[in-house]
Amino acid sequence: MVVCGLACWRCRWLLPLLLGLAIIMGIIALAGRGWLESESEPYVQQASLWESCTRSPNALNWNCESLMDYGWGRAAAATYLVGFVILVICFALAVIAFSIEILRFNFVRGIGGLLFVVAAFQIIGLVIYPVKFTEDILLFGDNMFSWAYGFGWASTVVVIGCAFFFCCLPNWEDEVLGNIKPTYYYSSPERAPYLN
């Protein structure tokens, strides 16, 4: 016999766990110095969300310039940071929502809506940064948008996926809460004589 059905109630912590993963990736993106880096030696340029640093090929020390002196730098940092703060709030709300026995599915759908807002803010910040950075900052050598910038996009992709799941979860309310009986599929003896 095969049992069909969703075992979601036992897996209810998967969505808050994914939001926690998005928060960790967001912290790495906010703190990382790898938004832009030199692609090959000599490594003369690196940048974070907050500053751009350069050095001469033989020097050891970096000369850094704050990106907060630029309007676009403040806008990129503010939009990504606002999205991150709302993401932390959504994580707390998700933990609360899945902790109570009687799950409020309209509440869960609201978290999904907030996650779409998070994704919008983060995408705005992640698009403003490379467009304006390459226009206003003098680049030396071959450069690439690197690992910390990638973590920012990874966080955003996870948030978008979670937003869809949070919004669609109420459609399977009975399955998640275990209010339906599982369906058993089996073959009748007439159709499968070899089972006798």
UniProtKB/TrEMBL annotation:
GO annotation terms (biological process): apoptotic process; cell-cell adhesion
One Pfam family this sequence matches: PMP22_Claudin
Membrane topology value: Multi-pass membrane protein
Gene3D superfamilies xrefs: 1.20.140.150
Subcellular location: Cell junction, Desmosome; Cell membrane; Cytoplasm
InterPro entries in the record: P53_induced, PMP22/EMP/MP20/Claudin
GO cellular component, one term: plasma membrane
Transmembrane segments annotated in the record for this chain: 12-32, 77-98, 110-131, 151-172
The entry's keywords: Apoptosis, Cell adhesion, Cell junction, Cell membrane, Cytoplasm, Membrane, Transmembrane, Transmembrane helix
Family: Belongs to the TMEM47 family.
Protein name as it appears in the record: p53 apoptosis effector related to PMP-22
Species: Dromas ardeola
Gene: Perp_0
